[in-house]
Each structure stands twice: as structure tokens, then as C-alpha cells.
Design brief:
globular; Rna Polymerase Sigma Factor, Chain: A; mainly alpha; 2 domains; Arc Repressor Mutant, subunit A; 9 helices
């Protein structure tokens, strides 16, 4: 499969839109699922997915092959997701200005849509929402390690490659993430403590 990915990426680097379409078909779900795990907003995840494939098209010629194509695409996805999150957090800091203008114009306040991860079955939607809220509160590195390991189910070695960290550092991040999540979820469900 890696050989096919590299072949498609070489063709994309030469400007082949059909090859980009093939790469898109192979990776669109993984990119979208990773983005929505960070952003918890379907419109934002769709925007990041589109941006990732634009970035792939623009930078395919600079792919050096030091990692697998899938690792490279995950890295781009994580970076774009984090960039959008940071942008949204900066906007929130200046939210009072927006509210002032909305008050004057009578425009409605923007509310976040209900978030449903596409990989979660219907019966578990409410628990998944609570879990993803807890994941969202994790520090960035812990969140990335947790999402790539347990939501996207990547092998730890690939998580380390995507994050450009050692395997030991990823394991440490995952231990801290699990401890933080356990603590957060125990506060929500105190009767489930063991």
C-alpha cells in the first residue's frame, strides 16, 4: 500500500489532479475523523479536510520520504486542526467585541453545533460527547497522542513519527492523558469510581 501512496504522491507532485483524487479517496475519511476529533465541529472538520488536500497538492514535490505518506498526511492534518483551534481561541479572546457588534446589529450569537463523531454508534453518542469534551480539555500534546492512538488507532510508532517524538515520549503523554481523562470523567461520574 505504501508503494501505491508514494506513486500517487509523485504523480500529484507532477500536477496530476486524478492522482490527487485517488489520494483523496484513500485518506479523506481518516483526515476528516482526525480533524473532527480535534475541532468537534463538522463544518470546521470539512474545512480542514479540504485545506489538507490543498496543502498536499501544493507541497507534494517537497515530500522527502523520511516517513510514510500516511504519517505525513496525519502530520498535516494535526497541524491544520491545531492551527484552526488556535485561531478560534484567539477569536474567543476578543469575543466581547463581536458581542458588541452583534448587539448593535441584532445579529444572533453563534452557537457551536451538536458534535457527533462519525465513528461512534448511535447508542453511545451521549457518552462520546462527554468523552470528547474531556479529550478537548487535555493539553495539546496529550490530546494529539490520545486521538492518534485511541481514536484513529494508529500504531504507537506511527504516532511518534507523526508527532516527531520518541516512542517513550508518546507513551508518557498517553499515561498522563489517561490519568487526566480518568480524573475528569470521575468528576462527571463520581458513582463509577472504583
Amino acid at each position: 500500500m505504501q508503494a501505491l501512496h508514494q506513486k500517487l504522491l509523485r504523480e500529484v507532485a507532477q500536477g496530476s489532479e486524478p492522482a490527487l483524487g485517488d489520494l483523496y479517496q484513500l485518506f479523506k475519511d481518516r483526515v476528516y475523523n482526525t480533524a473532527i476529533s480535534y475541532l468537534q465541529n463538522t463544518a470546521d472538520a470539512a474545512e480542514v479536510t479540504q485545506d489538507v488536500f490543498v496543502k498536499i497538492f501544493q507541497s507534494a514535490s517537497r515530500f522527502e520520504g523520511k516517513s510514510s505518506v500516511s504519517t505525513w498526511i496525519y502530520r498535516i492534518t494535526v497541524n491544520h486542526s491545531l492551527d484552526l483551534l488556535n485561531h478560534k481561541q484567539r477569536q474567543k479572546r476578543f469575543g466581547f467585541v463581536v458581542r458588541l457588534f452583534q448587539h448593535e446589529t441584532g445579529a444572533p450569537s453563534i452557537e457551536l453545533p451538536h458534535f457527533d463523531h462519525p465513528g461512534v454508534i448511535l447508542e453511545n453518542k451521549e457518552n462520546a460527547r462527554i468523552l470528547f469534551q474531556a479529550i478537548d480539555a487535555l493539553p495539546t500534546q496529550q490530546k494529539t497522542a490520545f486521538i492518534l492512538s485511541f481514536v484513529e488507532e494508529l500504531p504507537r510508532k506511527e504516532v511518534a513519527d507523526v508527532m516527531e517524538l520518541s516512542l517513550k515520549a508518546v507513551e508518557s503523554l498517553l499515561q498522563r492523558a489517561k490519568a487526566n481523562l480518568r480524573s475528569s470523567l470521575e468528576n462527571i461520574y463520581p458513582d463509577r469510581r472504583k
